[in-house]
Amino acid sequence: MELKEPKVLAAAKPYAYDLTLEDWQEWIKESGEAGFRAGQIFDWLYVKRVSSFEEMTNLPKSLREKLVEQFDFVTLSEVAKYESKDGTVKFLFELADKNAIETVIMKHSYGNSVCVTTQVGCRIGCTFCASTLTGLKRNLTPGEIIAQVVKAQQQLDPTNERVSSIVIMGIGEPFENYDAMMKFLKVMIHPKGLNIGQRHITVSTSGIVPNIYRFAEENTQINLAISIHAPNDTLRSKLMPVNRRYPFAELIEACQYYVAKTGRRITFEYALMGGVNDRPEHAEELAQVLKTFPMAHVNLIPVNFVSERDYVRTPRDDIFTFQRILERNKVNATIRREQGSDIAAACGQLRAKHMESGAR
Fold first, then answer.
1. Of 44, 83, 106, 273, which sits most exposed with the smallest number of CB within 10 A?
2. Residues 278 and 176 both lie in one domain
3. Is residue 216 included in any domain, yes or no?
4. Strands 201-205 and 163-168, how do they pair?
């Protein structure tokens, strides 16, 4: 049985960030304004990064009044901000409807990466993840996703740094909020938007098969990551209930189609859980599945401890053994560098703590 589509925010007015440049051009045309005004609005939103229409001083007052009447700015109220000793910064933001989301800035040698959230909560039900603990509340609008990156960039502006890459790996399943995610991406990569290179953006899915096919047809250079976490149907169904909806064989077939269609490599994310999916036989089985992909890459992730879950971290030596088995079978594998462990930077942990206090 197909699940119903998640609800979205019933806002009185759309958000300014909800519109692409093409949307603004259409709105400006319908409003009877000069065509170049759309580019000016876009510049104020994403280059100057103002927080109100009143600040758009090169627009006529009458146009600013129209904007105030018809659009809102996204409300992202900072509830908490934690800074790790490794430079990771995690935000807990409250939305206009009092729901809470998380956004993370991660500092790397090659630049600043932002991990964004696409839903309030998650219904995928992965048994090792904190994001699913309270289920799904609603989808975010495109503007609510975009606002997270704008906030991150504003955080970096005082030091003249910039957001250089984005991972869509925060709370929620991006491919269950597909249209909003794609509109978000259009603004991120637009030369007059935040102008982030497509190859510096990665979207991760737990395996929503129909939208993997759909994404293959988008003709982008954006990276795709698949949360696989098991080498077979039986184990994956135990860890990830989504596998019962879209079985393992169907997922692998969709991934093969994506690679054939795009010529691009897929990253397979594999969270290692002690004694569950981290044995040498699991590595051998995974290698047999993935060696059919010409450019497969496995990102091994030592599982984060979540107090409400029973999983334990795989011992260090076993992680390296797992990696060696994959590489011996010609499957490229790396181990994710842990960041922000001292500030509960794993997806959903901060929001879960916040909700224990009676918040949403």
1. 83
2. yes
3. yes
4. parallel
